[in-house]
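Students often ask what a 'structure token' actually looks like in practice. Rather than answer in the abstract, let us consider 7-carboxy-7-deazaguanine synthase, a protein of 209 residues. Its sequence is given first.
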Amino acid sequence: MNREIQTLVDKGEMLPLMEEFYTIQGEGYYKGTAAYFIRVGGCDVGCHWCDVKESWNANLHPPTETTKIVENAKKYSDTIVVTGGEPLTWDMTLLTTQLKAEGLKTHIETSGAYKLTGEWDWICLSPKKMKLPTKEVSKKANELKVIVYNKDDFRFAEEQAAKVSENCILYLQPEWSKRDKVVPLIVDYVMQNPKWKVSLQTHKYLNIP
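Now compare that with the structural description of the same chain:
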């Protein structure tokens, strides 16, 4: 990446775009809702069970003008989900400003490990043990979605739940490859701790992107 393009990326005028697609939101509060997804490359959080590891290296994904991303997005849906990778690796201010100017609703899915930039209608915080979320993201999160890979993740979930606002919706979601083992654990936990809800990756059950 040459210096001029790198400067534009640093400003958020361009973003390393991995993919963009129109589909059904499969997880969390808005599951079942039609939405346009913008997947931004770049992530150093390093979850070993990540199902989009190809997003990690930002250099593999072409720097794309933010205006072009917005032009594509507005053709499909009024709900735009920005995901990654870790989208907060980059400055989201220009992207969300332009999306909001088109009357679109802005959602983000983030680990919260970096400074919160952009204007968001909905923040889905999915914290990771390797890089904990900032206090600002935790306090502003609309939903907390903790991925359950093993029993220790219930402890971690409670730690993170103590950091979000009282209005934040709490979800436990089985890691896909471990779902047969952890779903019974999650069901039992939610029944004993009803402040939590179960989130499933319904798009995988429906066999859609």
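One point worth highlighting: The mean pLDDT is 93. Ask yourself how you might have guessed this from the sequence alone, and why that guess would often be unreliable.
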